[in-house]
Structures are given as structure tokens and as C-alpha cells.
Amino acid sequence: MSFKLNSKKEFLSELDNLTSDNTSGSKELQSKLNSIILDYLDEVTLTPKLISEIQYRFISFETIIKYLDFLKVELIKNEQQALKKYLLDFNSNEMNLYDKIFKNIGLDSRKECSIITLSNSTTVYEILKRLKNANFLKHVVVCESRPQVEGRILTEKLVGARIDVKMIIEADIPDNVKNIDY
Fold first, then answer.
1. What does the pLDDT look like over 136-148, one tens digit per residue?
2. Sign of CA dihedral 15, 62, 97, 45
3. Which runs of E-coded beta strand occur in the chain?
């Protein structure tokens, strides 16, 4: 591999920080990984071996493994332009995926709904934003998700998106479910 010394250290440091992230969901980790690879694409030579080493760090994240498999295939085929286009288009393709999911939800168009969810998920967050923008969302109840408390992260994102949200502990789920539509 032909790395610039500082770039290799910085790249590996970014990967170390990402792999120690215990609160982000798989899609959020994948998006961050894509950004890291893009940031260092001109300075770090990607090889199938390096991609395999990165895959090992994310062995329990199937979506990330599949994403890296695609990168590896493009590297083996020596399709640098296709690889760079894929990396650059990644985030907009993800947004299109969220739009497709939203369109397939099949909501009752007569009323706003309330939703309960667990933990922190970029996909859930993106769908909730779309529900809010389409005036389908009344409020969201988010479970705190102890011990990592990932629910707090989602709650903060929802507050930032001006979505009415209440955070509860898991023991309060039974009391809250009776007032929830989904």
C-alpha cells in the first residue's frame, strides 16, 4: 500500500474512533465510514486487503459489510471512476431509499399518528421527519434504551427537527403503549 505516513495514521485514527462509537446505528456508521473514505480517497490507496481489514472492524454490521463488499469488487475490477461516483452518490442514494420506505408505509391518511420506538436509528429518524413534514405525525415516544442510552440521541435529533417527543424508560412502555398508534 502506498500511504502518506500522516494520512495513514489519521485514516486509521478516524476508523478507530468510528469503531468505538457504541451509540450510532448501522446506517449512521455506514454514512460516517463513507465520509471518512471520501475524505482520504486522494491520500490513502484503497486496496481489497485494506477493505477486508475495515470489514473485520464492522463484522457484526451486515449493511456495512455489503457496502464494503461493493467497494472491494470495484477495486478488483479497477473501476476507480465507478468507485468514486458510488462514494460521492452514497448519501443522496440513502435519502432516496428513505423516501421509498416512506412511500411504502401505507398510513391512514385521515389522522395524525403517535409512534413509539427504541434506541437510535437513522432510518427511523428519517422516516419520522418525513411523517412530520407530511403532517402525519402527532408525537413520538422514545425509550431511553439503557445502558447505552441511545434513545437520548434520537430524542435530541427529534427535538432539533421540531418533532413533539417524550423520552421514557423501558419500564414505562406498558403505560405508554395504550396511547400509541404504531
1. 899 999 999 888 8
2. positive
3. 113-118, 137-143, 165-168
- Inter-residue contact 90 to 82 (CB < 8 Å): no
Question: Which residue has 409512534 as its cell numbers?
Answer: 115
The three cell numbers locating residue 4: 502518506
Indicate if the pLDDT at residue 1 is higher than 60.
no
Cα–Cα distances (Å) from 23 to 40, 68, 155, in that order, read: 24, 21, 13
Query: Which DSSP string do the residues of 22-82 spell out, in sequence order?
Result: -SS-HHHHHHHHHHHHHHHTTTS---HHHHHHHHHHTTT-HHHHHHHHHHHHHHHTT-HHH
| Separation of alpha carbons 165 and 142, rounded Å | 7
| Cα gap 45→3, rounded to integer Å | 6
Instruction: Classify strands 165-168 and 113-118 as parallel, antiparallel or unpaired.
Output: unpaired
Can you tell me the distance from the alpha carbon of 11 to that of 44, in angstroms, rounded to the nearest whole number? Answer: 8
Q: What angle do CA 77, 83, 84 make, to 5 degrees?
A: 145
**Radius of gyration, CA atoms only, the chain:** 19
Please state the pTM of the whole predicted model.
0.69
